[in-house]
Specification:
The chain has 577 residues and is of the alpha/beta class. It is 42% helix and 22% strand. Strands 16, 17, 18, 19, 20, 21, 22 and 23 form an eight-stranded antiparallel beta sheet that branches. Strands 1-5-4-2-3-6 form a six-stranded mixed beta sheet, with helices on both faces. Strands 8-7-9-10-11 form a five-stranded mixed beta sheet, sandwiched between helices. Strand 12 (352-357), helix 15 and strand 13 form a beta-alpha-beta unit. Helix 10 packs across helix 12 (244-255) and helix 11 (223-229) packs across helix 17. The longest helix has 20 residues, at 556-575. The radius of gyration is 24 Å and the shape is globular.
Length: 577
């Protein structure tokens, strides 16, 4: 492709750039480091699509990268025949800066290739895109979103006909097409109005919202308990300026929540996220406005959804403070509640199952053991859980109750194949109402789960190393852990090591003692002698190394101590970089 200076000059010389785009690049002509950062390599296209900082360059998110990726995606669709083209794609976007423009650009490229497009008339939650693909029988979907990333980012998520993110084979085909074609010459384009007039682009709106909400509300198990508790149950909600602003409150009201208090400042749609440093519900500091409101209205519960409304975070009142519930704890609570509620109502399906990831809490396995529920683990990412559900459907074997991952994502029902904060928010409200009817909060419910299933605590250390050297440093840590694995982690003996890249399980002496049930992911899993675990995995969407502490103890105090010791070991790995 040439070196970064040559590529930079090619962009400067290209007539495809607008005056403002050219000016942006010309302004960095004397900054070699910045030029290198923008042009040293293209953004990597994978099963999750693309994600990066917005700006001009091949390592940035901009209209040229969007068009290039969409043309490659269109080539894959066209190669599969007219019927696949006519089923078309659904295009969606979030609240971020440039998201609506990027969505229209993607729609115009698809239309120019003869691929029919259904384009949402405004921003919508990510799970509604997944629903719409399945609902309309579309071939694929495109979502312009960077989920919970900071405001400087945007992304290009790609989906296939099952409503899940792209399988690796098709993602690889798109990546190859991008590598083989010219970013400026390859994309075909059609005028947006012309595409509308020719019926190649059509709008999606309220009718899709209603169809989706009908399926969401059908997931309610004991809505009558919400009606009984509705006079006392108070819920504060924030969408963090994003896509949950409409459908989450509507779902909660349809469930029967009477006292719902949206955070007015954060109900304003704004891709610069002016009231928070990070619009990520995993970060409790972002809830400060919600906490202020909750204190004013004497609320029991705070629910927050991220900008594309696929993740949900919750804070619960205890002794005048609002305490965050972790993603793992919410998965434990939801699974236990769904099981008990379906048992109470006689609606448990035959051969029930639960799915989570290898980096999520081990309590899920314990809950499934106690209730004789089938349990499966997958790699991180809902596309892998969707693949497991496809296996269930093909075999006619299991009916899943819940799929979740520790990073605040939850999926229920057969109408989506991605994490769904709209459905999860509704179910969390129902669950909170049921525990309220027992005189308990969700924090009390967590304590009850520990008493019932044992003590489990988790923590994730996230080592962020941006820039060109970041990936090399992260890989260096992973290589060191593989070639010189620790004998102890936090003073706890390492019993076995699962290398999910090779699929090999080694004992403490380095002897092969088995194989992992799944393989192909750059993930190391250290099984400790006491039943605790440490997992190391580079992020697939951000320049991060994630290290997951999964502690287990006989008491809460013992479990907390082990969590701190294992976490300290993980942090030390990052400090050594």
């Amino acid at each position: 492709m040439g070196n970064y200076r040559e590529i930079y000059q090619k962009w400067l010389d290209s007539p495809s750039l607008s005056e403002s785009e050219w000016s942006e690049l010309n302004a960095i002509s004397g900054d070699d480091k910045e030029i290198e950062e923008r042009f040293y390599e293209p953004l990597s296209f994978g099963t999750a699509g693309l994600r990066g900082i917005m700006g001009m360059g091949i390592h940035r998110m901009n209209v040229h990268v969007i068009r290039h990726a969409t043309q490659a995606f269109a080539d894959v669709i066209v190669s599969e025949g007219r019927e696949v083209m006519d089923k078309g794609v659904v295009v969606c976007h979030d609240c971020r800066v440039n998201s609506d423009e990027f969505a229209r650009e993607a729609a115009c490229v698809m239309a120019a290739n003869g691929v029919r497009v259904r384009l949402f008339e405004g921003l919508r939650p990510t799970p509604e895109l997944s629903f719409a693909i399945r609902h309309y029988g579309a071939t694929a979907g495109i979502n312009i979103t960077a989920s919970h990333n900071p405001k400087e980012y945007n992304g290009y998520k790609v989906y296939w006909s099952d409503g899940a993110q792209l399988p690796p084979d098709r993602a690889d085909r798109i990546a190859r097409r991008m590598a083989e074609s010219d970013i400026f010459a390859a994309p075909r384009r059609m005028d947006f109005q012309e595409a509308l007039d020719k019926g190649l682009i059509e709008w999606l709106g309220q009718e899709t919202d209603e169809a989706y909400l009908a399926r969401v509300m059908a997931q309610a198990i004991e809505p009558e308990v919400v009606a009984r508790e509705s006079e006392e149950l108070r819920i504060v909600y924030t969408p963090f300026h994003g896509c949950g602003h409409k459908l989450v409150p509507e779902a909660l009201r349809r469930l029967g929540v009477k006292h719902l208090y949206p955070v007015a400042e954060q109900m304003v749609l704004d891709g610069t996220f002016p009231t928070v440093v990070s619009p990520n519900p995993e970060n409790p500091e972002g809830f400060y406005l919600a906490v202020d409101l909750a204190r004013k209205v004497d609320s029991d519960l705070i629910i927050g959804t991220d900008p594309d409304s696929d993740r949900v975070g919750v804070l619960v009142r205890r002794d005048g403070e609002y305490i965050p519930i972790t993603g793992n704890q919410m998965g434990e609570l939801l699974l236990d509640y769904i099981i008990s509620a379906r048992q109470r109502t006689g609606t448990m399906p035959e051969n029930p199952a639960a799915i989570t990831t290898i980096v999520s809490t081990a309590m899920i396995r314990r809950i499934c053991e106690v209730h004789h529920i089938h349990f499966d683990e997958t790699f991180t990412g809902f596309k892998f859980m969707a693949e497991k559900l496809a296996e269930y459907e093909a075999a006619g074997s299991y009916h899943y109750l819940l799929a979740f991952e520790e990073s605040y994502g939850y999926m229920m029902g057969d109408y989506v194949r991605d994490k769904d904060a709209v459905t999860a928010s509704m179910m969390i409200a129902e669950m909170a109402a049921w525990w309220h009817s027992q005189g308990k909060t969700l924090l009390d419910a967590i304590d009850a789960l520990y008493e019932k299933y044992g003590y489990f605590q988790e923590y994730t250390v996230q080592l962020t190393i941006p820039g060109m050297d970041g990936a090399k440093k992260i890989q260096s840590i992973m290589t060191s852990l593989r070639t010189q694995p620790p004998a102890q982690v936090g003073g706890l003996d390492v019993e076995r090591i699962r290398d999910y890249e090779s699929g090999v399980v080694l004992d403490r002496d380095g002897n092969k003692v088995g194989e992992t049930p799944i393989s192909g992911s750059n993930t190391l899993y250290f099984e400790l002698a006491d039943g605790s675990n440490l997992v190391a995995r580079p992020s697939g969407t951000e320049p991060k190394l994630k290290m997951y502490t999964l502690a287990r103890g006989e008491t809460g105090e013992e479990c907390a101590d082990k969590k701190e010791r294992i976490t300290a070991f993980a942090r030390a790995l990052g400090d050594a970089v």
